[in-house]
Amino acid sequence: MRLDVVTIFPEYLDPLNVSLVGKARARGQLGVHVHDLRDWTYDRHNTVDDTPYGGGPGMVMKTEPWGEALDTVLADGYEGGAHQPALIVPTPSGRPFTQELAVHLSGRPWLIFTPARYEGIDRRVVDEYATRMPVYEVSIGDYVLAGGEAAVLVVTEAVARLLPGVLGNAESHRDDSFAPGAMANLLEGPVYTKPPAWRGREIPDVLLSGHHGKIARWRRDEALRRTTEYRPDLIERCDPKAFDKKDREMLSILGWEPDPEGEPCGRFWRRTGGVEQ
Ligand code: 6GU
């Protein structure tokens, strides 16, 4: 896979030399090319932004540097043998970046990222390149960052660890919390390693029992407990067929009730006391 990133802060992408992504790169499984957008400015101040038409606060990134940068990156990539580019535009107004989208993007051979600062990029840039390649406008969560560079690091790591041979163990991401088809998209529960007692704290007995069925059941119960606490929306949106008899017992203990209208296959719901911090 080839990755290109065009940014006004190339140093911000230095972490791409480290850890999993850095190693994939060193092994030649990933080609990463970071470009300085200001290389495609020609005025004394290397201007990349201007005031918004229609007024309002902030600045908008100009069409010309982005257009020239992307034309060059595309030409160089094709010349280097890359094909089927996709444009990834990080923006708080994008579609949510999910594990499902990470899996999809990990199947593409060439991703070009355009992290923006200020109020974003002139719309015509995205519209122009959307005529030549798929464009994915993505947001990494419901909060606002000062720029898209951190989102590029997030998306890159989520995608790179899915590439064949990058994680080492092909099984490793099969039961990720958000892996498509993970039993019910539950959050994973707690994990433990040696020593068996630390500062008076022991590990749950069941994990030492050697009883694989009981261990699997305990892990599932802990996942249901944790998901109820932090992400009840995941349980509400679950296909009830994903829950077996033992799941239903645990859900009942955690305060969930099957929708009486939907029996025997309705979704689960729960009375809550409003916002719990
Ligand atoms: Cl991709 N960019 C910015 N600036 N803020 C964000 C974001 C992206 N995703 C969530 N917040």
Summarize the structure.
This protein is an alpha/beta fold.
Structure description:
With 277 residues, the chain is of the alpha/beta class. The protein contains 8 helices and 11 strands. It has helices at residues 19-26, 63-79, 99-106, 123-130, 149-160, 212-230, 232-236, 245-253, and strands at residues 2-7, 31-36, 49-50, 60-61, 85-96, 110-113, 135-139, 197-198, 201-202, 256-258, 268-270. A 5-stranded parallel sheet has the order 2-1-6-5-7. A hairpin with a 2-residue loop joins β8 (197-198) and β9. It is elongated, with a radius of gyration of 23 Å. The structure holds 6-chloroguanine.
Question: Topology of this structure?
Answer:
Elements lengths: L1 E6 L11 H8 L4 E6 L12 E2 L9 E2 L1 H17 L5 E12 L2 H8 L3 E4 L9 H8 L4 E5 L9 H12 L36 E2 L2 E2 L9 H19 L1 H5 L8 H9 L2 E3 L9 E3 L7
Parallel strand pairs: 1-2, 1-6, 5-6, 5-7
Antiparallel strand pairs: 3-4, 8-9, 10-11
The structure holds 6-chloroguanine.
6-chloroguanine (6GU) binds next to β5.
Record the strand order, biggest sheet.
2-1-6-5-7
Category by helix and strand content: alpha/beta
First and last CA, distance: 42 Å
The SSE order reads EHEEEHEHEHEHEEHHHEE
Tally of alpha and pi helices:
8
- Rounded to an integer, what's the Rg over CA atoms? 23 Å
Q: Which percent band covers the strand fraction?
A: 15-25%
The coarse silhouette is: elongated
Uncertain stretches: none
What share of the residues lie within helices?
Answer: 25-40%
Number of strands: 11
Reported for the largest beta sheet, the result is: 5 strands, parallel
Question: What ions, cofactors and ligands are bound?
Answer: 6-chloroguanine
Give average pLDDT, whole number: 94
